[in-house]
Amino acid sequence: MIIKILGSGCANCVNLERVTREAAADLGLDAVFEKVTDYGEIAGYGVMRTPGLVVDEQVVMSGRVPTAAQVRELLAPLAS
What we know:
Layout: E1 2-6, H1 11-27, E2 32-36, H2 39-44, E3 52-55, E4 58-62, H3 68-75
Parallel strand pairs: 1-2
Antiparallel strand pairs: 1-3, 3-4
């Protein structure tokens, strides 16, 4: 599983990466994390508000920082 954090590296982006790593670990996922900071590439995903979360090339959320529990709910169906 490839998980991408889209954003400039701001505090919200750092927080999104932290809660996503926590959720992935809780679910026992074997995930590779990538940071995408290029605005052209971010816009290519259709994300206009960062931070954004992309899992296996599908945008699963953008524009907010969810809790680790919310990220677990997003990732759980993709874990199987």
